[in-house]
Design goal:
four-stranded antiparallel sheet, alpha+beta, single chain, two-stranded antiparallel ribbon
């Protein structure tokens, strides 16, 4: 069961479960405690915890939605202050983490775009394997697209695909033209992409 509070939605079952769990734990340590006041106390604390987690998640989502330029400007603004202070230092730490993730997202998006939209028949992708060895794979974008079910996939299949994309944003499925199988390339380790008659290198 969920409860809506303005724009936030809380999991009432999880809140109640947290309160009851802490209540039972306290009673196990001290059976002389009274159940009702103890439960009321932990229920209030469970609500506070839930709201705190929601606020933190909302703040993180707002940072994650910002661009590299936007984050960089705020970082520069804080760094140029005569006195940064503890709050400023904490804000800087969060902004720098968000900036690193934003740069990573932009890097991944650029690589995905180069590979997926190659107008030629093949795209050569050079990357580093898990064992540290460098490999160049000949990718065939059209072959992969023809094998993906897309809207024809089952609901379970689409959910599984979405979950994989969320958990592993650094992995991109590609069609290995030489082995004739679907592979996953770690976008973070790509050092070179040759597509559309041009070579793109990455640090």
């Amino acid at each position: 069961m969920t409860v809506a509070d303005h724009s936030a939605t809380y999991d009432l079952s999880a809140i109640m479960s947290e309160a009851w769990s802490r209540t039972h734990e306290a009673l196990a340590h001290n059976p002389r405690l009274f159940l009702r006041p103890l439960f009321r106390r932990y229920l209030r604390e469970a609500w506070v915890n839930a709201k705190t987690r929601m606020e933190l998640a909302r703040a993180k989502a707002e940072l994650e939605a910002r661009s590299v330029d936007c984050l960089s400007r705020e970082i520069e603004h804080i760094e140029n202050r005569s006195i940064i202070g503890i709050d400023g230092a904490n804000r800087l730490a969060k902004l720098r983490c968000a900036l690193a993730r934003a740069r990573e997202r932009e890097d991944f998006a650029a690589k995905r775009e180069l590979i997926a939209t190659g107008t030629g028949r093949f795209v050569a992708v050079t990357f580093t394997k898990k064992d540290g060895a460098e490999r160049t794979m000949t990718v065939q974008p059209d072959a992969l697209r023809s094998r993906l079910k897309g809207e024809d996939a089952s609901d379970a299949g689409r959910r599984a695909s979405q979950t994989r994309a969320e958990r592993h944003p650094n992995l991109m499925p590609v069609w290995d033209a030489q082995k004739r199988v679907c592979r996953s390339i770690n976008l973070a380790t790509i050092s070179r992409i040759a597509a559309n008659g041009q070579v793109h290198t990455f640090a």
